[in-house]
Design a protein that fits this description.
The complex is a heterodimer of chains A (191) and B (158). With 191 residues, chain A is an alpha/beta fold. Helices cover 29% and strands 16% of the residues of chain A.
Amino acid sequence: MAIVAPGKRPGDRIAASKVFGKKFIRGKKSGNTGIMLTSLIDVMTILVIFLLMNFSANGEVLYMTKDIKLPDAYHGAMLERAPVISVSAEAVTFDGRMLLSTGDLEKGDVLNVPELEDALRDEKRRYEQIHANDPDHPFRGLVNVQADRRIPFKVIKRVMFACNQSGFGNINFAALSRSPGESKTVTASNN
Amino acid sequence: MAGASPSEHVGKGGKKALDVEFNLVPFIDLLSCCISFLLITAVWTQIAGLQVASAGGPPEQLQKQENTIDVKLLLTEKGYSLTMAGAAIEIPKTNAAQGPAYDRKTLSEKLKTLKASLPDQTAITVQPEDAVAYSDLVETVDTCMGEQLRNVTVAPLN
């Protein structure tokens, strides 16, 4: 017996009829499939607007690492691009280059840090050479200090002293920017 | 519907349909490029900078104004000590959930009072002890800046 598709099977007379025959004709589906693109474009447009609002022309000024947790600041200014001194619990780095161990800075009473001072002087010399014929960009002695929130002031003090000795008098302490509207913890400050 | 493959629609009687179809493919391409670029260049953490001067640095160019005083804020293990014009105000640490913490709320009120009596005052010297954590120093400097004392000098206590 022949295999036929399930469904109604009209007789020859009805199938040939102009009136009733159309009910049983299965037309071919079109090969083109229409995709609803409106919702896709809506989502993409919202994404573009969100990302444009968050866009920062400055880019990444600091090297964010896992072992440095920055404190919060509600009244800070935008951080300018400058040499970065990072102080984590393990090491002191200058522009991503490790200079010495943080433990070494916690020992002793002397203030000077020769390794850091040399690196800063080299940086100053390099900047002055590059901008020798550029009076619009004089050396301002700007340096960004990024330290973990638990680092004692004894270490920071020595870093600041090294900056001063090398001519970097404008020190910027890095902190996570918080807007005053956010949950402001004025009294909660704990080591 | 707006689709990617435009086709000729002819209405009844050979009239052209009023529906207009845009070619959305270039628009989607543009949006995709924008999203990729913005995602790659996005900066998710906003970093603030608190500019301070350190003691022993280059001398300030501004002349000292007559109606300002030397204000010193000491950070010790007991709390804040605000010294100005021969008087000292002690602000002890408060007991927070995680242990003793610097009372920045009271400090903020004291600085507000100071600023109200001396509106031209913008300078303050913050002197932390060696054991004071970086977070306490930064948050104290931030509190000073919040009370319009913008010229903050950080100097060691001893």
